[in-house]
Amino acid sequence: MEIDLVENKRKFKTLIFGNALTIFIQIFYMLRFNYTHHSSETNVVLFTLITLGALSFVFSFKGKYLVATLLILIPGSINLVLIIYQAGGINAPAPFWLFLLPLFYGVFFDMKGSIVGTFVSFIALFFFLVVDKYGLYYYQVEIADYKFDKIMNLYLFGTLLSGYLITYTKTYGQASVSLREANLRVDTLLRVVLHDLANQLTAINHRLKKLKRDDPYFVKLKKSSERSIEIIQSVRLLQKLDKPSFSKSVEVFPLKDLVASLHDEHELSLEEKSITLNIENELDEHKTIKTNFTVLKTQILGNVISNAIKFSYPDGVINFSIRMIESDIQFSIRDFGIGIPQEIQNNLFRLDATTSRKGTDGEFGTGYGMPIMKHFVNLLEGHVLVESSEEENLNGTLFTINLPHKI
């Protein structure tokens, strides 16, 4: 079990106030209760658990936040149950203290912690109900009126909960502001670096065009510069994906314009590997679609066709078809290349996974194309299906993209 050091440090500091106050309340209440009601059988156990809770401060100063966290939660939970049990179980002045457990567990372990805390609370309450029904007390407890105890516990419970929530909210508010400022600095720096690199690489690319094309170094330098520009463009696009200001503008255009533009854009890449692109448009040539033309052409279909070319063998074939499926327009792109390994298919649309690999002619990739494509398909309220095989006679990949038809 691991907890992020920085994140847990914030959480731990937030809970220090609550932990210190809880320990003080437990010691004070235990001493007062035992003195008033002459019930001191569990003092040794209670003091031991409180000591373990106090040790959490020692481990926190040494940076061992997981150990410190567990020393707060586990002994504190047991201690709380014992004190309530000693005070009369379900008839105790304040069994409602158990409902702090889901909150405290959730601070450190999020939803799973809250579930565990809730489970512990209900198990303890069930135990108290059984004890009360069958009188299963280890020692005789005289159930008193507890008016003062109830008032005092309600006051302390409210004070502790309010103090904790205020501290927690303030701490995370400050952390949120710091994180936004840090993201802004990184975003600004990245924009400057990408801008300067793009300018330099574009200048290099223009100068390369003046070199002799039969020079063996020309092709290598040209491919390197183009790949570097492609990476920069991908990173720039990734920067924009999660921004609220990213445009979702749409326009109405004929599908025949989309088909012609796609063919022109990939004509050189197809010629370099002698690959034939078969286009089958089953719809009327005047059929229109309402969506973002650039996103559909470049980031969705363009990305898939580029991949199909990259992983197809020379002299191969790529089939591109367009048809209506109920209320959707379906784009299918089928190649007969090397296929996609299952382990890459499982992570194909994830930015945090390594999915890039060389094409059949040694082409490089960034690994960003498919995640970007999937993001824009989702943005346009569509869905994508990938089928691929590396088996002999069945090799190749089929991308099926469905988008809502809007006229």
Automatic annotation (TrEMBL):
The chain crosses the membrane at residues 12-31, 43-59, 65-85, 115-139, 151-169. SUPFAM superfamilies: ATPase domain of HSP90 chaperone/DNA topoisomerase II/histidine kinase (SSF55874). Pfam families: HATPase_c. PROSITE patterns: HIS_KIN. InterPro entries: BphY/WalK/GraS-like (IPR050351), HATPase_C_sf (IPR036890), HATPase_dom (IPR003594), His_kinase_dom (IPR005467), Sig_transdc_His_kin-like_C (IPR004358). SMART domains: HATPase_c (SM00387). The keyword Kinase applies. Gene3D superfamilies: Histidine kinase-like ATPase, C-terminal domain. GO terms for biological process: osmosensory signaling via phosphorelay pathway. GO terms for molecular function: ATP binding; phosphorelay response regulator activity; protein histidine kinase activity; protein kinase activator activity. It catalyses: ATP + protein L-histidine = ADP + protein N-phospho-L-histidine. Residues 192-407 form the Histidine kinase domain. It comes from the Bacteria. The keyword ATP-binding applies. Keywords: ATP-binding, Kinase, Membrane, Nucleotide-binding, Transferase, Transmembrane, Transmembrane helix, Two-component regulatory system. Its EC number is 2.7.13.3. PANTHER family: SENSOR HISTIDINE KINASE GLRK (PTHR42878:SF7), TWO-COMPONENT HISTIDINE KINASE (PTHR42878). This is histidine kinase. It comes from Halobacteriovorax marinus.
